[in-house]
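Title: Comparing notes on inverse folding

I've been comparing how different people in this forum approach sequence design from structure. To keep things fair, I'm posting one structure and asking everyone to reply with a full sequence. Here's the target:
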């Protein structure tokens, strides 16, 4: 891969890294590149995944931010050799279909998670259906989310959901500040699951749905499944021990 484009977040470390790498490896326009180098943290990588979803250009992340589960270490001198030997990992997003008050239908994609959140001071009431079977008739909560393995270390982790190794065929269904049933901690679902959230009392207890960066307000129901037509390819160094980092994160106090 000799046609490289460098994309950086606005952080000083990322901008400095971009300058260093462009001096060593003359860049090309992103849409003409064979690989896109994302310099920043996981949040910036998520932005690049959405922005270049339709390009099918592989993405190689270099950690220059605060969180870097999806990023490789910064080492400018051997970049071409690292790209040559990098392991590809395809990521398929969740596809969210939303019905709103008034009958509108909207769609959005999420590589991290789809989250439902209450809009007012009153708790949300949400019914959860998995593969056409009602699994929870009423969850009273601040919200609920469905996370991919890539997103399991983001909002899902903050909501005390499980960390899922990248590449595992699972999704994390995690409540956000559940009031009833209070002891329900969520569930692990197969990636093939079709999940539907039905908002109970949507006029009195309005709920918004968020797919990564896209927020849709005043929803009545949300259906989520893994997309089979959209994906991005992330590249990881051979010694990028993401499994070890995920294990270590689960034992932090």
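Reply #1:
Here's my take.
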């Amino acid at each position: 891969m000799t046609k490289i484009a460098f994309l950086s977040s606005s952080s000083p470390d990322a901008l400095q890294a971009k300058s260093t790498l462009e001096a060593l490896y003359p860049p090309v326009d992103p849409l003409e590149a064979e690989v896109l180098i994302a310099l920043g943290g996981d949040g910036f990588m998520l932005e690049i995944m959405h922005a270049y979803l339709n390009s099918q250009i592989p993405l190689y992340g270099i950690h220059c931010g605060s969180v870097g589960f999806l990023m490789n270490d910064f080492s400018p001198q051997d970049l071409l050799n690292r790209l040559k030997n990098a392991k590809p990992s395809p990521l398929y997003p969740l596809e969210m279909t939303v019905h709103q008050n008034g009958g509108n239908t909207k769609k959005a994609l999420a590589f991290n998670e789809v989250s439902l959140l209450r809009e007012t001071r009153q708790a949300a009431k949400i019914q959860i259906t998995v593969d056409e079977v009602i699994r929870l008739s009423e969850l009273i909560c601040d919200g609920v989310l469905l996370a991919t393995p890539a997103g399991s270390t983001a909002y899902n982790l903050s909501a005390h959901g499980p960390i899922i190794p990248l590449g595992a065929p699972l999704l994390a269904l995690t409540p956000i500040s559940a009031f009833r049933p209070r002891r329900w901690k969520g569930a692990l679902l197969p990636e093939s699951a079709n999940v539907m959230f039905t908002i109970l009392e949507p006029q009195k207890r309005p709920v918004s749905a968020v797919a990564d960066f896209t927020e849709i307000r005043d929803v009545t129901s949300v259906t989520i499944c893994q997309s089979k037509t959209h994906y991005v390819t992330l590249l990881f160094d051979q010694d990028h021990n993401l499994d070890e980092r995920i294990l270590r994160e689960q034992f932090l106090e």
